[in-house]
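Why do we care about 3D structure at all? Because function follows from shape, and shape follows, mostly, from sequence. That is the central idea of this module. The next example makes it concrete: a single protein chain, its amino acid sequence, and then its structure expressed as tokens.
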Amino acid sequence: MSENVNEGNSVNPSVIIKKIRFNDDTEIDLGSNDIVVFVGANNVGKSRALKDIKNDILENTSKKVIINDIEYKDENFEEDIMKKYFKNNFELGSNGYDIEVDGSHTYGYNEQNFQNTKSGDKYFYKALFSFLSTESRLNMTSPISYSYITNKLSFNIMRKLERDKGAITTLNGILFSCFGKKIDVSEGIWQNAVSKLYKFGTKDEIDKSVGADTREARCLLESLENLNDQGDGIRSAVAILSSLITATHSLYLIDEPETFLHPPQARILGRNIVELSQNKQCFISTHNIDLLRGMLEKNSSRIKIIKINRSDNENEFHSLDNESIKTISNDKNLKYSNILNGLFYNIVVLCENESDCKFYSAVLEKLDSDVYKNTLFCAVGGKDQFKIIIPLLNKLKINFLVIADLDLINNCDKLKDLINSIEANKYDQISSTHSDFLRLFESGTDSQVKKQSVIKDEILGLITDATYMSDETAFKIRQVLKNISHLKLLKNCGKSCLPPGECVQKYNQIIDFLNKNNIFVVEYGEIERFITEIDGHGISWVEEVFKNYPTFDEPEYSNAKKFIRKVFKIELLEEGEINE
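And the structure:
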């Protein structure tokens, strides 16, 4: 008989999930110490997966939506071990032990149940797991009246924290690092009834209470605020942490533990969930990258990330590579970007810089708010970063689009690296076409590119006898230097400068190929060419555009709207809007 060693080195019964088969027939094998984290966009089924597991354990008649089948593994289901476990962890009533799950389901256990104990008996599974939903966590920190104990699980946690100084000290160490406050368990009058409740105070107040004798401690605690009157963030965290610290359950289901927390607090909570759940199996749904980062920082080897994607009401489940997430987290250029947040969106749009993200996201929101809500725009810091990020997104099963200026196609080697980052040797499909295009473009636009002698004369004509160069003169010189090569001509003028005939044909083939591989270029050259009435570049240009055209209904946005419709395949037009 294998042993599950818990508090006090006693052998306890346990149950864990050995294998899950999802509704796309994906199967994932699991270990007893695994932390399974469900990630994905809104409404793909992260929380539903936890509910399916809960309903399966409770043998609920509700149909499973996300999960088709669950294979369990239990240990130490012998009668004497089971009896001892219940005696040590639950209150014995007149009819036996009443075990509460999720604040809404109660199951009774008596002598007859123990006599029939056997492996595979799911009725005992109900007493060996915790389901910590958002609502149940807030209820767990409410005062509990002695005259009517409705939540026995919460009551038992309170009593253990009250009696075990080590447990309350561990809990308070984490709470102080998160919130700068601590708690203790007290008795008092709540809603005209004698109740057990949590008190909330400063480090000095709680430390003094924990270290005082009984009478003095009671007086100190009565003067403090009730935890029930504090923010939902600390109440939810107390419920999660205290459950992990005091309970002897082997299986935990925790729905969005980061709810109500600020990013630094979520990160600390993530680290401590891993720390406190040793020898326990956890299933967690989350929509928060800070919680996930905290968990991976503590012990990435325990974490199994399941990415849920949904398309046309069909789910796909992918077990992700933690090393790819660590690569992004550790890369100095990517660590502080929002790329990893793409785990929680339907699609990530990679742009060259923040100004592009700001402009394109605003246009998309105007055209289709639903698509906008499930799309993350991410600035990567230049075209050369695309080829680094795309393989990581592929490994993480994150759908992506690339939006770039037209000069993306100016260089064979750079475009080759980008396309091959999507799929090995994919550039071979367009290599000859690309080379032909660049050759035809350069030969066909030779007359449009200024010779050095012309550039020199134009610049000398702008320089005056003044001691210092004015901003106006400097700006004019920069304009002269714009079209000093064939490639810069393409970016500054866009496809309008293409030589007619074969060059245009090759260009269209390249654009079609890129679009089929989720790469879209601004065919006007660069983003600023969408609205040429506004001068400037980058974020200053975007801000001036929004200032001068605040409603997005102005005709100046027509070309940008047309482009975004093409990128996101938005076919329906707004009422009263013409087809540009």
